[in-house]
Give the backbone structure.
Amino acid sequence: MRAVDIIIKKRDGLELSKEEINFFIEGFTNGTIDTYQASALTMAIYFKGMTDQEATYLTESILHSGDILDLSAIEGIKVDKHSTGGVGDKTSLVVGPLVASLGIKFAKMSGRGLGHTGGTLDKLEAIPGYDINISEEAFIQQVNAIGIALVGQTGELAPADKKLYALRDVTGTVESIPLIASSIMSKKLASGADAICLDVKVGSGAFMKNEKDASRLAELMVNIGKNCGRNMTAILTNMDEPLGLAVGNSLEVIEAIDTLNGNGPKDFTELCLEVAAHLVLAAKLAKSVTEAKELLQKQIENKEGLHTLAKLVHAQGGDDSYIYHPEKFKKATHEYSVLATQSGYVGHIDALSIGNAAMILGAGRSKIGDAIDHSVGIVLAKKVNDKVCKGDILAKIYANQENVDDSTALVLHAYKITEEQVDSKLILKIVK
Ligand code: URA
């Protein structure tokens, strides 16, 4: 087999076989196929696409390039969730404890944030002492003991994806639906869960800018997961405004705690219940989404979800008193209000700009390895369709610096004020 023939076949829009895809991915990973040929193939995939079968072979090939977590020592159905990346997205901190409080095993490896989107690991590290680095053995033991672990990556999962993603990043081939689907699904499948709920974000702050592309991505990932024997659901959600009110690490942990206490923002609570309900269905603890949501709502009312978050924090070395006393989180030294310059209704809040405004305060990284300031961030005071009068507070900026002109300008730029309310809904579609 020759790499060039595979490139030509895809260039001409033909379907690649399992053997051809394996040959190429193995060659690229071990260095016998060079980056210039891999660039040509990814560009051909970008233009010609892939069938669901090809995308499944590609995912499996990337999956088998590294370690695959064996969760068979954990009893019962293991569930996981994944978000394609949003602003203010602290869903795992609520969904995990809620489902685990019902006895469902939530075994999740998370990532760090980069650019305008935050990462669950950075949020967890806002809790003093929380250790994201636990061994595979300890991970399995913890899930068996308390039903939940939220950790950084153990072992080397999907190294071919790391190499391919770095190449796509510099060759204009990130935005290819089969390449995104195989990249995400290879890592999810390597993490070993039986049932996976994907939250596919749509909108200005997301990878997928329109619902049609997001639907195709969701359907492809669901099909890949099903082809690999997993119970899959994908939820298409609107990212035309940040999720909830808080953006920034400890601010988001506090919002997750508020939500587990029953006092969360409406949109964020709605999404957490939707994602968790599909995991409850997959674990066969309810017969319908409505029944699953009722079960979950009870776990909020009786504080079992909150207690499970405290157990998780304690098990991973963190100070669980912060979960019951969120006022203990270190506060930023300065608080600034961003005021509305005109009256009307909030028509749109550009999530990308809000994410960038928080990032330049120190809440996120512009490059891998940058340090994070857990105490800074932004809390929105107005959401889409809220009425606004000139001079009202749109958002508050929490900073450890005196000059926040750049963040203020980004927040003001993010808010689009309209004369009338707009059609807006959070959950756009469920793909089973
Ligand atoms: N996230 C991933 O892990 N891979 C992609 O290609 C895009 C988003």
